[in-house]
Each structure stands twice: as structure tokens, then as C-alpha cells.
Design brief:
CATH class of the largest domain: Mainly Beta
Protein name: BBS7 protein
Pfam families: BBS7_GAE, BBS7_hp, BBS7_pf, Beta-prop_BBS7
Number of domains: 4
Keywords: Coiled coil
Strand order of the largest sheet: 38-40-41-42-39-43
Radius of gyration: 29 Å
CATH topology of the largest domain: Methylamine Dehydrogenase, Chain H
GO biological process, one term: intracellular protein localization
InterPro entries: Bardet-Biedl_syndrome_7_prot (IPR016575), BBS7_GAE_dom (IPR056334), BBS7_hairpin (IPR056335), BBS7_pf_dom (IPR056333), Beta-prop_BBS7 (IPR056332), WD40_repeat_dom_sf (IPR036322)
CATH architecture of the largest domain: 7 Propeller
Number of helices: 10
């Protein structure tokens, strides 16, 4: 790393949520700043650093979880008033810890996102779907969002001259408001999780905002009065974690503020604006757990700037420009090493005291556990979890993060799923054989983690049409042994992802439902079938959602209202799955459905043409992998491989990459075979013909892998 940042761990508080740590403004130029942080035990902690030690300024009493922490203050004064969101209440503290505000809002749900405007009088609060704007604690504006709100901010009034709030919503939209009305929506490449003003002030115009998404992408958009202007967008080429926090700060000392990014896989990144077009990743630093908050400032020592990060388990870690080891034999080096020695000896004595305490408590516990009146208490621990569909490889990522070290995780599924390889995963996995018949167990796998692993990432790929539950049993390294179970729904159309628009020129199959059902009932069925649909019934009389299949690229359009629903897809298997599941759900509720469908012959050919290139590629990959061992044996016997054909020499040269790719997606070819077989069966199912007896013949044709032959077989059958 060029700036030579050294890591310093200052203090650990309780588990922290996203955006709950800030630095109070410094009293003078280059002076050290106080740190204020709120944790999920409900404690607000404010501290400064003196001689490398954390010195508390104030600490509040425990209570409900703190969801957000922001700073505010009157216009043109230091922003040093502390505002925290706890449940449905906002509390305000001075920098000395005196509470000056306790504002109980009229929200029915807990506050999820908060923004305090520079004026200090305007407060923007969001629950799951609801946005409220308060001025001097009086309700001003209200907006109901179409999907969950992840973050909120407001453009600076001193530059933009009007209050312009921006909501980051789960359905891949930024919603720009004016009062209680929607001004316009901005499509972004992933679900936006965090918003920040560009350069900390919205840029020269005050209209520029930076967003980070759940799938690790970054972008900058200018919010003008009439329409958005996209400035730049950076993809996630390195397949890193989702973005949780952003800040602008000049850490490189070049006079231009860099963009600081904190991700949920523990990466801290510094992006520099070398040219006007888009920022370039200059440096990165890996912490072992997700970075919930990030800010640049001066914390540890006067004159030395640093990046301060708050991690999920509550560690406040600085990446400082202060040199840890100085060159040469100056007296300063001796003084520094003396300071270090004192710190090390104090840590050693603290450690010895703790070990003594642990031994005493353990003996006490052993004695009390043998008495007949003893009651064993289950230690509580918090788990941060994320189960998301990756568009790039049509797989689900399950990320589990625990505040203490994980001992093992048992994964169980009642539907067939494939476990895929994850590069970052150092845990040892072992599979148990399971009986799929009596108790519908299709997967039992145990991940045994190495010491001090607090974060585990798994990847699974489901099969559309097969739906059920995936369960993760998480056991941390604490005594007495405790386990938490987390459940994740695998939906019937699990590989579909929400999209903003589809290609209407494709040949479509249509499924029409009519019956005595309410808007809320049909919406609940769609939520059951498809991922990324908001659980709350949409406002209005009807709704349209668009989806894309991440594995095949086929699409689905669903439009429904009270008493009727229309589903259109270019993949007949998608329509078949919907027909089966929706009629089952209606039967459960004793609702009589009138189902009709319109099948397009052309759509089957179109879907086969979409699948075929993938099939060809996977078959070629499998053939190459099967040849590697034989070619390597030849190489050993003959000494050189010059006599081989160029294509075989290429296979040997690329052997490691080919094996790696094949290992990453073990059952890819079988999945494609399965999809083509389902397509064949579904095509004739709608005609009332059972063609299961012709499946072996179809598999023979698939091995030959000829697109025209495949299409003519579908037509002739």
C-alpha cells in the first residue's frame, strides 16, 4: 500500500449496525477528533485517544438496538450534535453526553434509515417501506415506497435551494422526492444499500450522489431538477462483497478527496480521482469481518490522518498514516519503542488478569452446575446473515457472520441443490449421506471452521420447479455449546431476478388466471413463487413485475389485480411451474381458479437457441477435462508433446484453468440436460401428451449436440 497505512485496533463495543459510527469535528486544524459509536446493546460510546489509549468521554445506559447514528447542528456551526435512531424514537445528545432530545415518532415500525440535514431542524426517517420528513419534530411529508428502503439522504439546501430527499430502495431504484410526491426514479445496476454525497457536499452543484450496491457496484449520479445524469459506474470485477458504507476524505494528501469504501467481506478500499471520468482503485486493506461504518479523520495522534472503520463485532480499527517504525537510531525511536514496551507489558498483565478471572468463573460454573437447583442459561449471540442471488453465475450466496468465532455450520436442505466452491472459504466441508424418501433430506453438509473464523460464505445453486427450505445450524465456539438455526426459502422460480424492462418482441407463452381471489391473495402467491418481490401488497389496483432468468436469460412478465392474473414468458417451463404452484396454492385456500393458456411453438425453438451455446460450451469443457489425465500421462512417457496436435497442446497448457472452472460448477451440464428435458415434457404437457418414454432418445440426441437436430426432434415428436 503506497500511503503506508498501519492498522491500529482502538476499542471494542457491542455488535454494530450499518452507519452507526461518526467522528466529531476537530477543535483545531489537524487536532485529534473524538469518536462516537452506537451498538446493538443500545449504548452510545464517545471516546478520544490519548497516548495510544482510548479515553472515554461519555457512555449511555443499555437499551434497544441502535439502527443509525448521525451528526447535526445549526447552519454554519460545527456539526457536533449526536442523533441516534432507537426503535421508533430519535434521541439527541450533546458532545459531552447530555441528552437534549427524545422524539417519539408516529412510525409503527422501527426506524431503519435516518438522515439529519445540515440545518439540524430537518429529520428524514425511513421504516421498511415508509419515508417521513420532520421539521422541528413536526410531521411535514410522507411517502410510501414500492419496495424496502435501505438508505436515505437529502441534497444540501444551501446549494440546491430546495429540499430534495433521495431514497435507496431494494428494487434497484433510487427514488427522488419532492415534498410527499415522487419526482422520478433512477435505475441502478444492483440493490442500493448506501448513499453518500459526492465529496461529502454533493460536488460543486450539490446534486451529485454516490451509491453502493448489495452486489458490490459503485456509481455516481447527478440529481437535477428534471432528470438524472449518470456520471460513472464501477462494476465488481474482483467479486468482492456488498458495499455497506462510503466516505470522502483526502487520505493520500494530494489535495483531492478520495472515496473510501467499506464492504461486507471486510475490504476497505481507497478510490482516487486521477482523471475526471471515474475513480481508480488505488489501495485496499482486508479486515476479517464486515465494515459497518467508515470515516476519514485524525484520531490517534495530532497531524496524522487515518481511516477509521467500525466492524460488525464492534471493533473500532484505524488505518493510520502515522509511521509505526521510524528509520535511524534517533532518540524518538527509543522513546517510541519504550512506549510500545509499556503498552505490551500492560496488555500482558491485562491478559493474565483475564485468564485468572476465566479460571475462577469456570470453577464456579462447574461447582454450581453439579447442584440440583442450578439452571443452565443459554448464551445469546448475534448472527449477521445474507442470502442473495448472484446474477453472474445464477447461484445463491449465503453469508453468515457471528460476533465470536464459528466452530461449525451444518447445512441441510429438503430440496436438491448443488454446493459450489468458494475461493474465500477456508472451512473443511464433509458430506453425510441422507435418505431423501422418508424425511425429504437432499443435502447434509458440515463446514468445520478454522480457529478465529467469524465469517463463512457458501454458494448454492437451486433447480427451478423444486422448492423448499435450506437450513443453516450455526454453532460458535462458546460454552455451554449453543446452536442457532436460520432458514432460507428456495422458491419455485428461484433463479429469476427482478429487472426494470424486458424484450417485448420475443415469442411469448401466456398463462391467465381468473377467480374469486383478492389482490392481496394473488400477491402472496407471487411472493411465494418468485424472489425479490416486496412482501407488502402494492398500493393501487394492479401491478406489473418483470423478471429475468439468471441461468438462461429467459424472461417473465407478471401483471395481476383482484380476480385476474396474467403471466407471460418465452420459456414454457416457467409457465408450467407457475401453473402447478399457483393452482396448488389456490386449492389450499379452497379458491376455484379458471386457468387458460396460450402456448407459442416458436418460443420453444427460441429457448433451445438460448440454451444451446451454453450446452455446447459445457460439453466441450467436459471433454477437455476428461482428456487431461491421458494427455499428462503421454507427456510423462514421451518427455515432450511437440508431436501432439495444437488443440491437444492447448488443453495441456490450460489444464489448471479448465480443472478449476469444471470444479467451480460441478453439475452444470446435468442442469442443462434437465432444463432441455423439462422443456420437452412441458411442451407436450400443454397439448395433453405424455412423452416421458421418448426422453432416452432425447438424451442420445443431446450427446450429439446438434442444434438443428435438436429443434427438429422437438418438432417431430
Amino acid at each position: 500500500m503506497e500511503p503506508g497505512l498501519a492498522r491500529v485496533d482502538y476499542l471494542q463495543v457491542g455488535v454494530t449496525a450499518q452507519k452507526t459510527m461518526r467522528l466529531l469535528p476537530a477543535s483545531g486544524k489537524k487536532a485529534t477528533q473524538k469518536v462516537v459509536v452506537g451498538d446493538q446493546d443500545g449504548v452510545v460510546t464517545c471516546f478520544g485517544i490519548k497516548k495510544g489509549e482510548a479515553v472515554p468521554v461519555f457512555k449511555t445506559l443499555p437499551g434497544q438496538k441502535i439502527a443509525r447514528l448521525e451528526l447535526g447542528g445549526a447552519l454554519n456551526t460545527p456539526q457536533e450534535k449526536i442523533f441516534v435512531a432507537i426503535g421508533t424514537e430519535v434521541r439527541g445528545f450533546t458532545k459531552k453526553g447530555k441528552q437534549f432530545l427524545s422524539f417519539e415518532t408516529n412510525l409503527t415500525e422501527n426506524i431503519k434509515a435516518m438522515y439529519v440535514h445540515i440545518s439540524g431542524a430537518d429529520l428524514f426517517l425511513c421504516a421498511s417501506y415508509v419515508y417521513n420528513h420532520y421539521c422541528d419534530c413536526k410531521d411535514q411529508h410522507y411517502f410510501l415506497s414500492g419496495d424496502k428502503i435501505n438508505d436515505v439522504l437529502c441534497l444540501p439546501v444551501d446549494k440546491v435551494k430546495c429540499i430534495t430527499p433521495v431514497l435507496a430502495c431494494q428494487d434497484r431504484l433510487l427514488r427522488v422526492l419532492q415534498g410527499s410526491d415522487l419526482l422520478y426514479e433512477i435505475e441502478v445496476p444492483g440493490a442500493p444499500t448506501v448513499l453518500a454525497l459526492s465529496d461529502g457536499n454533493g460536488g460543486d452543484s450539490g446534486e451529485e450522489i454516490v451509491y453502493g450496491t448489495a452486489d458490490g457496484k459503485l456509481g455516481l449520479t447527478q440529481i437535477t431538477g428534471s432528470k438524472p445524469v449518470h456520471k460513472w459506474e464501477i462494476g465488481n470485477e474482483k467479486k468482492r462483497g456488498g458495499i455497506l458504507c462510503l466516505d470522502s476524505f483526502d487520505i493520500l494528501g494530494d489535495g483531492v478527496k478520495e472515496l473510501l469504501v467499506g464492504r461486507d467481506d471486510g475490504m476497505v478500499e481507497i478510490y482516487a480521482f486521477e482523471s475526471a471520468d471515474e475513480p481508480v482503485l488505488r489501495h485496499d486493506y482486508a479486515l476479517s469481518e464486515s465494515v459497518a461504518s467508515i470515516q476519514g479523520g485524525c484520531v490517534g495522534k495530532d497531524g496524522y490522518e487515518e481511516i477509521l472503520a467500525a466492524t460488525y463485532s464492534g471493533w473500532l480499527t484505524g488505518l493510520t498514516t502515522e509511521p509505526v517504525h521510524r528509520e535511524g537510531g534517533s532518540g524518538e525511536e527509543l522513546k517510541l519503542s519504550q512506549e510500545m514496551q509499556n503498552k505490551i507489558s500492560s496488555l500482558r498483565s491485562e491478559l493474565e488478569n483475564l485468564q485468572m478471572k476465566v479460571l475462577q468463573e469456570r470453577e464456579k460454573y462447574q461447582q454450581s452446575s453439579q447442584s440440583s437447583t442450578a439452571v443452565s442459561s443459554v448464551p445469546a449471540f448475534s448472527v449477521n446473515e445474507k442470502f442473495t442471488l448472484n446474477k453472474d453465475d445464477a447461484s445463491y450466496s449465503l453469508i453468515l457472520e457471528v460476533q465470536t468465532a464459528i466452530d461449525n455450520v451444518l447445512v441441510q436442505s429438503d430440496v436438491p441443490i448443488d454446493l459450489l466452491d468458494v475461493d474465500k472459504n477456508s472451512a473443511v466441508v464433509s458430506f453425510s449421506s441422507c435418505d431423501s424418501e422418508p424425511n425429504s433430506n437432499f443435502l447434509l453438509a458440515t463446514y468445520r471452521c478454522q480457529a478465529n473464523t467469524t465469517r463463512l460464505e457458501l454458494k448454492v445453486r437451486s433447480i427451478e420447479g423444486q422448492y423448499g427450505t435450506l437450513q443453516a445450524y450455526v454453532t460458535p465456539r462458546i460454552q455451554p455449546k449453543t446452536c442457532q438455526v436460520h432458514q432460507y426459502q428456495i422458491k419455485p422460480l428461484s433463479l429469476h431476478q427482478r429487472t426494470h424492462s424486458i424484450d417485448h418482441d420475443r415469442p411469448m407463452n401466456t398463462l391467465t388466471l381468473k377467480g374469486q381471489f383478492s389482490f392481496a391473495e394473488i400477491h402472496s402467491w407471487v411472493v411465494f413463487c418468485l424472489p425479490e418481490v416486496p412482501e407488502k401488497t402494492p398500493a393501487g389496483e394492479s401491478i406489473t413485475f418483470y423478471f429475468q432468468n439468471t441461468f438462461l436469460g429467459t424472461q417473465l412478465e407478471s401483471t395481476y389485480r383482484k380476480g385476474e392474473g396474467y403471466f407471460k414468458s418465452d420459456n414454457i417451463s416457467t409457465i408450467s411451474i407457475l401453473k402447478d404452484v399457483l393452482s396448488k396454492e389456490a386449492t389450499k385456500r379452497k379458491i376455484n381458479l379458471n386457468i387458460s393458456y396460450d402456448v407459442s411453438e416458436e418460443s420453444v425453438r427460441h429457448t433451445l437457441k438460448l440454451i444451446h451455446p451454453k450446452l455446447e460450451y459445457q460439453q466441450l469443457l467436459a471433454k477437455k477435462v476428461h482428456l487431461i489425465d491421458a494427455l499428462r500421462e503421454l507427456q510423462v512417457h514421451e518427455g515432450n508433446v511437440d508431436f501432439l496436435l495444437p488443440k491437444y497442446r492447448t488443453i495441456l497448457e490450460e489444464a489448471d484453468q479448465l480443472l478449476e472452472e469444471y470444479k467451480r460448477q460441478p453439475a452444470h451440464l446435468e442442469r442443462l440436460y434437465g432444463m432441455i428435458t423439462d422443456l420437452f415434457i412441458d411442451k407436450f404437457k400443454f397439448k395433453g401428451t405424455n412423452v416421458k418414454s421418448k426422453v432416452p432418445l432425447l438424451l442420445e440426441i443431446l450427446d450429439g449436440c446438434d442444434q438443428d437436430g435438436l429443434i427438429s426432434f422437438f418438432d417431430a415428436a
